[in-house]
Amino acid sequence: MTILEPDSGVALWRKVADSIERKIADGSYAAGEKLPGEVDIAHSHRVNRHTVRRALAALAERGLVRAERGSGTYVEASRIAYPLRSRTRFSEIVGAGGREPRGQLLAASQEEATRELARQLDLKPGAALIRIDALRLADRAAICVGTTWLSADRFPEAGELYRRFSSMTKVLAHYGIRDYRRASTRITAAIADAGDAARLNLGIGRPVLIVEGLDVDSKGRPLLAIQARFAAERVEFVVETE
User: Fold this and answer.
1) What number is the average pLDDT over the span 154-164?
2) Can you state the angle between helices 12-25 and 38-45, rounded to 10 degrees?
3) Which of 16, 123, 181, 198 is 20 to 30 Å apart from 48, CA to CA?
4) Cα separation of 19 and 4, whole Å?
């Protein structure tokens, strides 16, 4: 049991936060590990649950822990080094770091191409597109929410195939496209909207890094227009020159 002295001039919630941070630093709580529940932490530190909640909120703001609805609070893993190169594959990048990549389909629908999407994909404005919204995870941690647009004429079953494979690389392989590359990448920053914040387990007001890209086949023909919103506290982009 950790006994906290109330007369040191340091708020009790800060003492609880510091105690938990020390255990994270010395490995007592490993990356990805679930922390004890609020009641257990309160009992072991001889404080009330309100104090524990404030301590955990402070640690979450610093990116040291994350709360998952209905599950508990987990030690946040270190940032993923995410290379930006001509051949960018989420599963390969995450797997190379020793974590398990997963994809989860959120929605698949058909919509008309805006003028900008039509320009990127070399289609006529209003052309039918398949839109795929997916969540990407590394182990248990949500890393990004991505939206991908493809030609509905060229890839008519792309949504159902992604539901089956959870991999855009496998979807394209189904259509005989074995390799593709990133033709352009644009990065901006924003505050996560309510939907993305919930999916990424981010607090209100937390930042996301927005990556907009265009992937092309070996002949330079457009394949995919992409917009991915990354949890800024979980990735660091590495720009690689070739």
Assistant:
1) 95
2) 110
3) 198
4) 9
pLDDT at 230 over 50: yes
Please spell the DSSP secondary structure of 5-32, one letter per residue.
PTTSSS-HHHHHHHHHHHHHHTTSS-TT
pLDDT of 233 > 50? The answer is yes
Could you tell me which residues are beta bridge partners of residue 112? 128
Both structure tokens of 5: 């002295």
Give CA–CA dist 124/22, Å, rounded: 58
Q: Determine phi and psi for 174, rounding to 5 degrees.
A: -60, -30
1 — pLDDT class (breaks 50, 70, 90): low
**pLDDT > 70: what percent of the chain?**
95
Q: Residue 113: which pLDDT band, with cuts at 50, 70 and 90?
A: very high
Residue 3 has pLDDT above 80, yes or no: no
Asked if 162 contacts 134 with a C-beta cutoff of 8 angstroms, the reply is yes
The neighbouring-strand residues paired with 131 are 109, 149
Count of other CB atoms within 10 angstroms of residue 4? 16
Copy the structure tokens of residue 136: 């990407």
- Tell me, what DSSP letter sits at residue 79? P
Question: Which domains are present in the chain?
Answer: 12-75 (1.10.10.10), 80-239 (3.40.1410.10)
